[in-house]
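ugh ok fine here u go
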Amino acid sequence: MLRADLNYSRFSATNQLISLGQAVNQTPVDNGYGQTLTAFVNGVLEAPTSPWTRFYVTAGVGLGYRRIDLTQNGFVCDPYFCGPGFVSNTVASEDTTRFAWNAGLGMDFTLPAGQSWFIEARYERIETQEPTEYIPIRFGFRF
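structure:
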């Protein structure tokens, strides 16, 4: 069968990315995050393992949007206090949309009224200059 998917992920920047951001921008970086939004059209091949469960493999192509923000914690001073505050300044950011692909496998568990719940893991790759690769593990409900 064919299935269309729209996925959103958000994750913290790794220490490696923070160090690279500091070196490239010549400014301190305290934190950061990345976001991806992907849209795929996938082929799905299912194999029943019992009357209530199905194993499946899936793979497909689509588009992936990636945004990375590196930040530096701000410093706040008022008449009563001077120190680190809840202010975050963006030091560097980048966003891009590129070709993406994925491949994965999962298990589908049938419920009485025709719905099902599932668990799956997929390798996803967005073809950015340095490829964006990750393996999300998803739990979900199909209706």
